[in-house]
């Protein structure tokens, strides 16, 4: 089974959102993918409404499981509502909304944080999109509630993390050589497919690096290694890409990245959008052309002013 446990966050963090805005799930899930959330533009006091959360990914993808085999991805999520908002009580939910929610079970993050909800792990192929029934506060009954525009934070992950809460690596990540030297022995240990890599340093000292079942070895006996050289492939996969580096493009990308998705598992804020997605390629090209045209026009005016 491929797990995505929000309970890890519940057990280790009193608040799932750090001061810099990052969701704590990102401490274990080191990859980054976008997520989506849909909520009404406005809601009335003491009213049940729905939020639609989406965790898109390529559902043909498999990952390394805890036992080293391949399997599908589970999903987990955390929804951080404004103070006073909460999960809608069962007796306030209409039959239509109950049908939309289905058998998904949402629970408060903790006893004193009923405005923060967690869900999962759930099979990603079936639950990449979920409906959350929510209840708005009543300012007439609660002094802490006001008629304002509130942000809602949503973070989600797909599949297993690369690091456990105690800081140790899972088998769903890349393993590197702990020391430079020559690979003198590669030994398979046990039935699960674990490996022990013996590396001999230049002074004759031998160091054994242990690799759990799952990642594929990227080295052979006799290879000479540098420190931190990968011993395995990256089971999360990599995709080569080319980057056109120009000053204008770098400035635009830096500006967009400052407003891009936060965290490494996906974070989206609604209705006040603090984390806009990176611009699409077409929009980026249009912007680059506009910048180039402005610079060309400015240069032309400068030449005319100098009488050139």
Strand and helix map with partners:
Layout: H1 7-12, E1 36-38, E2 48-54, E3 63-64, E4 70-71, E5 74-80, E6 86-87, H2 95-101, E7 107-110, E8 113-123, E9 129-135, E10 152-158, E11 181-189, E12 194-200, E13 206-211, E14 224-225, H3 247-257, E15 267-270, H4 281-305
> Class by helix and strand content?
alpha+beta
Query: Count the helices. How many?
Result: 4
Broad CATH class of the domain at 7-158: Mainly Beta
Taken in chain order, the helices and strands follow as: HEEEEEEHEEEEEEEEHEH
The gyration radius over C-alpha positions equals 25 Å
CATH homologous superfamily (4th level) name of the domain at 7-158: Cytochrome f large domain
Helix proportion: 10-25%
Q: Could you give the order of strands across the largest sheet? A: 7-8-5-10-15
The shape is: elongated
- Low-pLDDT segments, ≥5 res: 238-246, 252-264, 271-282
Report the average pLDDT across residues. 80
* Overall number of strands: 15
Q: What CATH architecture label of the domain at 7-158 applies?
A: Sandwich
Alpha-carbon distance between the two ends: 72 Å
Largest sheet: 5 strands, antiparallel
Portion of residues in beta strands equals 25-35%
CATH topology of the domain at 7-158: Immunoglobulin-like
Membrane topology: Single-pass membrane protein
Domain Cytochrome f large: 5-159
Organism: Castanea mollissima
Subcellular location: Plastid thylakoid membrane
């Amino acid at each position: 089974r491929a797990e995505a446990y929000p309970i890890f966050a519940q057990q280790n963090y009193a608040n799932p959102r750090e001061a810099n805005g990052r969701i704590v799930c990102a401490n274990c899930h080191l990859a980054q993918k976008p997520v989506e959330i849909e909520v009404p533009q406005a809601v009335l006091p003491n009213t049940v409404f729905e939020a639609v959360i989406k965790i898109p990914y390529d559902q043909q993808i498999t990952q390394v499981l805890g036992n080293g085999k391949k399997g599908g991805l589970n999903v987990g999520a955390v929804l951080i509502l404004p103070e006073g908002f909460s999960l809608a009580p069962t007796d306030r939910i209409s039959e239509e909304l109950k049908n939309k929610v289905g058998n998904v079970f949402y629970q408060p993050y903790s006893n004193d944080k009923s405005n923060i909800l967690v869900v999962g792990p759930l099979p990603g192929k079936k639950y990449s999109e979920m409906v959350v029934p929510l209840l708005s506060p009543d300012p007439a009954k609660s002094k802490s509630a006001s008629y304002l525009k509130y942000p809602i934070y949503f973070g989600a992950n797909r599949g297993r993390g690369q690091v456990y809460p105690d800081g140790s690596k899972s088998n769903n990540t890349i393993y590197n050589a702990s020391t430079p030297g020559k690979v003198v022995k590669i030994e398979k240990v046990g039935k699960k497919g674990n490996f022990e890599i013996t590396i001999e340093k230049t002074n004759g000292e031998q160091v054994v690096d242990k690799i759990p079942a799952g990642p594929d070895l990227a080295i052979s006996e006799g290879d000479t290694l540098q420190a931190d050289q990968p011993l395995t492939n990256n089971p999360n996969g990599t995709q080569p890409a080319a980057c056109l580096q120009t000053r204008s493009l770098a400035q635009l990308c830096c500006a967009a990245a400052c407003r891009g998705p936060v965290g490494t598992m996906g974070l989206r804020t609604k209705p006040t959008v603090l984390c806009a997605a990176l611009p699409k390629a077409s929009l980026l090209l249009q912007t680059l052309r506009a910048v180039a045209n402005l610079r060309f026009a400015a240069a032309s005016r400068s030449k005319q002013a100098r009488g050139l």
